Write the structure tokens for this entry.
Amino acid sequence: MKNYTLFAIVESAQKNSSYFRETLKNIDLRKYKTDEQLLNALPLIDHVDFWAHHHFENNVLLTEPQPHGLLFKSGGEF
């Protein structure tokens, strides 16, 4: 299994998802030297807003194509 740094995960999300590009627009990766600094700078994601952007076609949440499955919400109410 490949391990990804937090910087790589955030960079991929900003690059490949219009939702995360907008949500993380104030995160300039060049400003942070450590994972801890970056983690403390990341905003909390509002789950209602997140799921409001979920669509089965043209999903703006995903960072890569998902040709062999669907993304479903599961779990209890918050």
Q: What stands out?
A: The chain is about 40% helix and 0% strand.
